[in-house]
């Protein structure tokens, strides 16, 4: 590949099915070692995820000395301690419209606020569909389905997740043109501002670090990763990514379960 590897100063990685296989809560020892080698060489590592900060695996904070973390699909950039650096909230009218429809149609609704994920409709349905039992996040979601006032003190939500009938969600999504409804899994939809994506977090991080996209190698596996894979100097799709993601990448790595990120970092000589 005709690329100057010495330009790479920032490694940007998605979490789920990129550095963390399904059902795992810690990155591999090999990848941990490679990330620390990169840091020792002056290369920064940034996680860029659709997850809320409170849903990040605790092991990441132990294994990765991250300065900046992109969360909620680009809607919120935070530092290592969860302090917000940049955020992009939803409109109040969109929040109200989603709440009304979810109450009416028995849809589990969890808003991703700056501080926590908070349910405004059908709490148990949301929890049962969004959180696996016996995980680090078992009891992190706040139930505000009676008063629905969390936004008054903590500001408008930065995104939301819905658990419910796909046909109903598809139908009312067309009435909210400022929002993107991204199917995540059966009966589950990630909802966020249409103009916001994961490249927003990287753009702000690049300003903080005094770098450009020509200094970035980016890794991801899903459609919400393509906005930061495509502009990166080296964009990498994992082998488990779908074809419509792989076509945006410069390199297709082995699958996440086969330590694809570590393989590419080592083969390109980015970590030595």
Can you describe this structure?
By secondary structure, the protein is of the alpha/beta class. The protein has 2 domains: 5-87 and 196-267, HAD superfamily/HAD-like (Rossmann fold, 3-Layer(aba) Sandwich); 92-193, 2-Layer Sandwich (Hypothetical Protein, Haloacid Dehalogenase-like Hydrolase, Chain: A, domain 2). The protein is 29% helix and 23% strand. It contains 10 helices and 14 strands. The strands form 2 sheets. An 8-stranded mixed sheet has the order 5-4-3-2-1-12-13-14, with helices on both faces. A 6-stranded mixed sheet has the order 8-7-6-9-11-10, with helices on both faces. Strand 10 (179-185) and strand 11 (188-193) form a beta hairpin. Helix 1 (29-40) packs parallel to helix 10 (260-267). The protein is elongated. It starts with 9 loop residues before the first strand and ends in a 5-residue tail after the last helix. The model has no long low-confidence stretch (mean pLDDT 93).
In brief:
The chain is an alpha/beta fold and 272 residues long.
Task: Give the strand line-up of the largest sheet.
Answer: 5-4-3-2-1-12-13-14
The CATH architecture of the largest domain comes to 3-Layer(aba) Sandwich
Mean pLDDT: 93
Helical percent range? 25-40%
Strand content: 15-25%
State the CATH class of the largest domain: Alpha Beta
Assembly state: single chain
The CATH homologous superfamily of the largest domain is termed HAD superfamily/HAD-like
CATH topology type of the largest domain: Rossmann fold
Low-confidence stretches: none
How many helices? The count is 10
Radius of gyration: 19 Å
Largest sheet: 8 strands, mixed
Number of domains: 2
Write down the overall geometry. elongated
Order of helices and strands: EHEHEEEHEEHEHEHEEHEHEHEH
């Amino acid at each position: 590949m005709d690329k100057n590897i010495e330009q790479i100063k920032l490694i940007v990685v998605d979490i789920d099915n990129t550095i963390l296989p399904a059902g795992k809560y810690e990155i591999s020892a090999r990848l941990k070692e490679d990330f620390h080698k990169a840091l020792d060489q002056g290369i920064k590592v940034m996680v860029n995820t659709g997850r809320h900060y409170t849903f990040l695996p605790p092991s990441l904070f132990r294994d990765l000395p991250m300065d900046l973390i992109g969360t909620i699909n680009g809607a919120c950039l935070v530092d290592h301690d969860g302090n917000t650096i940049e955020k992009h909230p939803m409109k109040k009218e969109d929040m109200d419209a989603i709440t009304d429809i979810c109450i009416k149609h028995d849809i589990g609704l969890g808003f991703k606020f700056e501080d926590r994920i908070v349910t405004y409709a059908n709490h148990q349905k949301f929890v049962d569909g969004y959180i696996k039992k016996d995980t680090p996040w078992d009891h992190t979601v706040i139930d505000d389905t009676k008063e629905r006032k969390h936004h008054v003190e903590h500001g408008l939500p930065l995104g939301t997740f819905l658990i419910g009938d796909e046909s109903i969600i598809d139908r009312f999504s067309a009435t909210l043109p400022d929002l993107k409804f991204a199917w995540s899994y059966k009966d589950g939809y990630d909802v966020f501002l249409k103009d916001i994506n994961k490249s927003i977090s990287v753009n702000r991080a690049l300003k903080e670090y005094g770098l450009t996209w020509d200094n970035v190698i980016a890794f991801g596996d899903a459609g919400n990763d393509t906005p930061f894979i495509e502009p990166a100097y080296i964009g990498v799709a994992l082998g488990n990514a779908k074809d419509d993601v792989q076509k945006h990448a410069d390199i297709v790595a082995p699958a996440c379960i086969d330590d694809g990120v570590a393989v590419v970092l080592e083969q390109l000589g980015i970590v030595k």
